[in-house]
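--- STAGE predict ---
source: upstream dedup step, 1 unique chain passed
mode: sequence only
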Amino acid sequence: MSTIKVAVLGCGAIAQRRHIPEYAANEHVELVAFADPKLERAQEMADTYGGTAYSSYEELLAQEKVDAVSVCSPNYLHATMSIAAAKAGAHVLVEKPMACTSEEAEQMIEAARASKVFLMVGHNQRLMPPHVKAKEILDSGKLGKVLTFRTAFGHPGPEAWSVDGRNSWFFRQEEASMGAMGDLGVHKSDFIRFLLQDEVAEVGGFIDTLHKSDTKVDDNAACILRMKGGAIGTLVASWTQYKGGDNSTVLWCEKGVMKIGTVEGDEVIVELIDGTVETYKVGAMATNEKQVPSGVIDAFVDSIVTKTPPTISGEEGLRSLNVILAAFESQRTGQFIKL
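--- STAGE serialize ---
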């Protein structure tokens, strides 16, 4: 297998801490180019990992023949960059939310299809060891049908994560389009769909900016979901969990309850109605404080190497995006939104 030449578009926090080091660690990959409007950021990556720095992604795509790209830009550029890369013949891994609208997401899917390249969305929650284990247990049938659930993702906000701190694009609505819902909520809409192997049928959302100042993007959301299979539950996304952030999911089922990440944040606890309690510790979750490999890069590279379409496809990303867009629609109209 020849080496896969990879370019990274956008050299902020997610690129620096996850995408680039994970590509560098993958034996199939050669990092050949980096683009960032702040050229010194791209240059720093090129100096560290090899390759060429560009201040514009258009120039990079024109100058370099790359096999694959990671799109790690602010949300509003996800579609434009992904489509340009696909047209240049590169496989695309795009950060979540894959786009700001369903129309954009559909155009991305179409561009990848037309160019016969893969489009994968960085929904890393599916790949976290406790989540993989939880799905395996649920699929085994020992808990029976899922009746109700709650899933939540919260932390203190992007200030501590983004390379630009409080001046980050995350807080600028024209660049981010959405706040905590686009950052964290979409991870959870994706995860609950994946875990239950079911689609969301109906959504109600309360979405607001409760505490972050000088921004129009949402910092909190509480949503109620009804799944096609009948289960009902809640989805919470928050940027104001200043103490004790949360990435947990609980499923109440016919034969017991499954608690994911409710104690230490990385265990799966199964409590059956017969009194049996099983605890699985299978590996950590990646958090902002603790960067463990996300699995996304390796999965993307593996797709390219084996010529197998990625399971976290553009279509999957669109379905998860549509759930959060419906929650915004619900907040706007005061109605439940059917998908």
